[in-house]
Design goal:
Layout (H helix, E strand, L loop, with lengths): L11 E7 L4 H14 L9 H4 L15 H4 L8 E7 L5 H8 L4 H4 L3 H5 L4 E2 L21 H18 L2 E8 L16 H9 L7 H11 L4 E3 L9 H10 L2 E4 L6 H14 L3 E11 L1 H7 L2 H19 L5 H4 L3 E8 L8 E9 L5 E9 L2 H21 L4 E2 L22 H15 L10
Parallel strand pairs: 1-2, 1-4, 2-3, 4-5, 5-6, 6-11, 7-8
Antiparallel strand pairs: 7-9, 9-10
Helix pairs in contact: 1-4, 1-15, 7-8, 7-9, 8-10, 9-10, 11-13
Length: about 425
């Protein structure tokens, strides 16, 4: 198979994070810095730890992905970003209380030197937060120009050869796809007219694409999931991807749903509830932001189970999702699922799952993988929606002509087969 032409990963890779002082971002940055000093293991990171089978199984070629694929090196990454609070990343990480002070102090100087740029903030989109380190401008179009200037300055000041942007900010209130999101001229006009349908995340995304910076949407926000941005990404030849990091409860759904379906077991109902603290829980306590997250979480089961094809098994599923803000838990989220299934002759059974996870600990390695794979895609000349990275998202982006794939294992095969294709190896169908 012909090897894809991939530009060398020479020079520094700038990683700009929206919400750089949040729990996820500060955990991701601190963990990456600790790992590259050899003081920690990047558990959960496919780019750093996973192997990839090349050729026939009997050839016994199982190199690590990072050794087989031309990814950027951790030592070449430079971090920066924006936040609605002024704290440097060390102070922010201390406040988040995800990592111990002992771990944070291993990279204290590096974290302290990462000071956020003023953020684009609109109280109408995140009701429960009150930003104090925010940009001001006459129009949203002016804010786009300010973000573009930030990117240009960061790239120049840090001598970056390339930049990738990742959204680790809060979930915005639910925004319906409307006519202002369907064409690029309409989107630009809406920004200039201060349309209430233009969210802060869209301002970042547009500015990044204008600067030919790939954009990763780690929240369920509309952001880049619209025809106007799809067109812009293709025009600029830049990758876009999202949406909403797949970490805890939804990851389990993408594992358990395929199990139920492959055994042709029936499903009557699936009740999911969560308790979490930190800034994420506080934001999701607002009904508007919860609606955005709920839409992301609810889509998984229907997509995998295909009730239209199996009405007798999945045609009448009751699916309910709840998220409850509970400050004492901080970042230590608990996701509890009650799953009512039925088997032979319709006899009922139940599954109960209690996942006591750490939200940012699960999300941090995803951020690292997504940054490195997105940079790889950009250097390989891949643009637009990166469906091969659906593995990492609750609501994988897709255009109107395609259907998203939610099955975690199918997603993983697709990811690895894309990597094989990029390096000129045969894809694997497992028939052998």
């Amino acid at each position: 198979m012909e090897k894809k032409k991939i530009k060398d990963a020479q020079g520094k890779l700038g990683v700009l994070v929206v919400g750089v002082g949040g729990a996820v971002a500060s955990t991701f940055i601190a963990g990456t810095l600790i790992t590259r000093k050899g003081l920690g293991i990047p558990v959960g990171s496919i780019t750093q730890l996973a192997t990839i089978r090349l050729g026939k199984r009997e050839e016994n070629r199982f190199p690590k992905i990072k050794d087989a694929v031309p990814l950027a090196k951790l030592g070449d990454i430079v971090f920066g970003g924006w936040d609605i609070f002024e704290d440097d990343v060390y102070a922010a990480a201390r406040h988040a209380e995800v990592l111990t002070v002992e771990d944070l102090d291993k990279v204290k100087d590096e974290l302290s030197s990462i000071k956020p740029m003023k953020a684009v903030f609109d109280q109408n989109f995140v009701k429960r937060l009150h930003g104090t380190w925010v940009k001001s401008a006459t129009t949203k179009w002016d804010l786009v120009q300010q973000v573009r200037e930030d990117i240009q300055k960061f790239k120049k000041d840090n001598d970056c050869a390339r930049v990738v942007c990742i959204w680790c900010g809060s979930t915005e209130v639910f925004t319906e796809l409307s006519k202002v999101h369907k064409t690029l001229p309409a989107l630009e006009a809406a920004m200039k007219e201060n349309s209430p349908e233009i969210a802060p995340s869209m301002i970042y995304a547009y500015a990044c694409l204008a600067e030919e910076v790939p954009y990763i949407n780690g929240a369920p926000n509309l952001t880049v999931d619209m025809p106007a941005i799809w067109d812009f990404a293709e025009q600029k030849q830049v990758p876009i991807l999202g949406k909403d990091f797949k970490t805890g409860q939804t990851m389990l759904k993408t594992v358990l749903s395929p199990m139920i379906k492959t055994r042709m077991l029936g499903l009557s109902g699936w009740f999911s509830t969560n308790i979490l603290g930190n800034r994420d829980g506080e934001v999701l306590d607002d009904p508007g932001s919860f609606k955005t997250k709920e839409e992301s979480k609810l889509s998984v089961i229907d997509n995998i189970l295909q009730p239209g094809l199996y009405p007798e098994l999945y045609g009448n599923v009751y699916h309910k999702v709840r998220i409850n803000y509970y400050p004492p838990r901080k970042d230590n989220k608990e996701g509890w699922d009650n799953i009512d299934i039925f088997g032979w002759l319709g006899y009922p059974m139940q599954l109960k799952v209690d996942f006591l996870c750490r939200d940012s600990i699960l999300a941090a390695p995803l951020c690292l993988d997504l940054v490195l794979f997105t940079d790889l895609a950009h250097r390989a000349g891949m643009s637009g929606i990166q469906t091969w990275l659906s593995f990492y998202f609750k609501s994988p982006m897709h255009d109107f002509d395609h259907i998203a794939e939610h099955d975690l294992f199918i997603q993983y095969v697709k990811l690895k087969n894309t990597l094989r294709t990029m390096i000129g190896e045969e894809t694997i169908d497992f028939i052998d």
